[in-house]
Amino acid sequence: MSGTVSPIDGSTGGGIGMAGGGDARELSRRLADQAAALVGLLDTDSPDPVAVEAALVAARSTVTELEATVAVARAGSGPQPLPPVVVSAPVLGVDACRAGWVGAILEPGIPRPRVAVAETVDALVETVRRSLAIQVVAIDIPIGLPDSTTRRADSLARKALRRKASSVFTTLTRAAYGEPTRGAADPVNRALTGQGVGAQAFGLRAKILEVDAWVRSRPTVRVLEAHPELCFATMSGAPIPAGKKTDDGRAARLAALRAAGLASPSVLSGSGYAADDVLDACAAAWTAARWVNGEARSLPDPPETFSDGIPAAIWV
Fold this sequence. Notes:
Helix content is 44%, strand content 15%.
């Protein structure tokens, strides 16, 4: 199910030496300098563990940037829209909404996604499973919380969505999400990663912890993390510039779904959920269908794993 994710920022070039090549060379030089510095630190009788760890963190960060930059440079003449997805097994895409969670259900032979809503993610999945043997659930929420670093999944998704990088927030550490307020979480996260706590990242705290607890309860269904903007960009060949809450944005996303083989969902809005919630759930369901077919790819590949033991990756 894993492999290299095609870059989707619409950039063009003839290879590593073309688009993005300058960045790749600069990052390679930086990595070489960091490696040399690390050798120097270790080439002593008593290496300073703090300095060694700091050097390793810096080198890992550079590797992540280089990996994403090289992937973009390999785009060649630029990415193309993908062919329509084949729904070969029942799957569920899920997005958070005011009512709790909204799901888009895809079934073989039924191109129009059906919509379901529930207060909790567990209730949503179990309600759907009473009548349908869904194989995969793809959710638009971070899954797999880091201990003392940021997630490579978030960094790579931003690299892939260069023109809409702001749609990907940095997931906080597990310790930061354990704090009751943003003010309390900020110093905890800063001490561990050097980064503060963003409003969106903490605003979704209750949803993130809900899904985290559900996943750790070992539900008997495959659970994936998806990012709708990455999904729409991949199925379309480039990010959709119009905002998802605008008329133009909704029209563009519906068109992208049609081109991907999915008709307009059975409903677009209702009590406690809006059209953008439903469309995001449909995009997640598209990723779930691709996973069943062995077509989905993960950022990173392979996924990271932190102390919670949960594979942390954004699938598309």
